[in-house]
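From the methods appendix. Each design record in this collection lists the tokenized structure first, followed by the designed amino acid sequence. Records were kept in a plain field format so they could be parsed without special tools. The example shown here is representative of the layout used throughout.

RECORD:
FOLD TOKENS (90 positions):
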């Protein structure tokens, strides 16, 4: 075996090892970033749902209390308002 072939073989092995290590670390970093982004989106959605629930309980339900004695109004349920706002794109 010539010396040039041995050097090329060592360089090829080091190159493949470096590519593998970079691939592993970049994959791990992307996974952590994706998990953090999903958690932030979930926090945002939950805070939005809580805000809709609080608004419905404090602002809408007192206005409908007299009508609620005679009939059921879905607008008085916070989950109904959250679903309507989710599907209307608001």
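DESIGN:
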């Amino acid at each position: 075996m010539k010396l040039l072939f041995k050097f090329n073989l060592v360089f090829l092995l080091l190159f493949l090892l470096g590519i593998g290590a970079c691939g592993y670390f970049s994959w791990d970093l992307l996974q952590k970033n994706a998990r953090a982004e999903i958690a932030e989106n979930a926090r945002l959605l939950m805070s939005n749902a809580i805000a809709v629930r609080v608004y419905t309980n404090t602002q809408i339900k007192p206005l409908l209390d007299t009508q609620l004695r005679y009939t059921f109004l879905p607008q008085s349920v916070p989950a109904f308002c959250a679903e309507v706002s989710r599907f209307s794109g608001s």
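APPENDIX NOTE: Helices lie at 3-68, 78-88.
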